[in-house]
Fold:
Amino acid sequence: MKRQFEALIWVALLLAAVVASFSWLKLDFVALFAGDGLQQMHSYAASFFPPDTSTNWLRQIFHGSLETLAISAIGTLLAALAGAALSLLAAGRLGTVAKLLARLLLNALRSIPELVWAALMVLAAGLGPFAGTLALALHTAGVLGRLFAEALENAPPGPTRALREAGAGPVAAFCYGTLPGVLAQWLSYTLYRWENNIRMAAVLGFVGAGGLGQMLYVTLSLFQQPRAASVILAMLVMVLLVDALSAWLRRRWG
Amino acid sequence: MTVRLDGVGLTHPGGFQALHDIDLSINQGERVAIIGPSGAGKTSLLRLLGTGLAPSTGQLHLLGVDPATLKGQALRRLRARIGLIHQSPPLPPRQRVVTAVLAGRLGQWSLLRSLISLCYPLDSAGARAALEPLDLQDKLFARCDQLSGGQLQRVGIARVLYQRADLLLADEPVSAMDPVLADHTLNVLGKVAAERQISLVASLHAVDLALRHFPRIIGLRAGRVLFDLPAERVSQAELDQLYSNDSFNEPVFADPVSAIAAASLEAPRRCT
Structure:
């Protein structure tokens, strides 16, 4: 009896919190669907069709797609290189102090989202693809460094130790003993993050970091819905293509 | 003198004393088998000889030097001259056999050469020559995870043969092979040691193999040398003493049914 009463109080409190949130945030779903709301939604959605397929615009979209692709690829590559270097430290291969510092740095890089990095990088490097690349590289380095370090920690120590005991130097022993075991995993993580980053690169344009996202932002701001529609379609096609390519690569090497 | 131990003891970090006060010397070109029950300290002794572990007490001399006094390059040079064959070969599963064998000479190669050879095997002829006596040359470009346990063990042996060490150590080198292959493999190891006039120290579970292939037998029990004799003087009484096990002197069940019944009596289950 007492437990039921307690549960009732909790439910009442939750309900009160939900109602309070709605009224505080002024979320008025009734107004959204009342009157000519649906009518307006329909006409706005309809204004996107048919998409603009003029040759000139398609050419611009092609360039934008290439830019987005390049931003995501270079950003991920830089992140993989930095992540690999940091993961060696974070896995404790070079002492405890370096391990703690590297983990701190990786956490900091990872906990700041790409969009925030992009806004900061636009301030630092100016509008354009360079800022987007840096933003992706910084956040992804934090993610990949952490994943790479975990792979390193899970790698069996036997092969490398045996090589060291046969007189091999630390670098050679690592390359022959540990790297073959973790490389496929590293590659698979990198390709997966590349998939994420190509989606992210499309969004980063909204804060001025170049590529398809910037085209989308500009066309939407100028109420050029047909042009925006073809940009959205281009994004969709590119993401699907990269997902397929990356899945194929991971099946082959993973 | 290739190997000399004076009063060597070994205590593992957990506090377990694996070896007690061992005096031993092995001459250049001698072939020695170490036998004894599980947990007698055979692997610990071999890891000590392979500089993987350092003695807690006493003095160890390998190829004329005390490894405890060496550091850096000098230690690496000594280690490059000692080849240890592991019971379960420490080979990365995704590595190709040729690379795994060539890794035997990392101690002699420069870093640049090692890294180039990692991408493109620089001496596949040498790797093939090391695999040939073990009848594994057709697996040169196979991946290690495609091999059976016995094949993997032979790849581990080929790596140490390729290393061209001056002291050959082997920890249960044929434990995953069938009797014929085990015989053949020990022959190959013995022949290499005899040709190059180097010492071979191997631990073995199979006493018959030890007596057949090694002129000198060391019986290790509970971390102490029980006997150290020429093979022809090792008698059944010594072997019985070496392998006797007090905890198995209880009545042994003749048929499995009564054994199961007894087991279920001994381990009462609790329902909660």
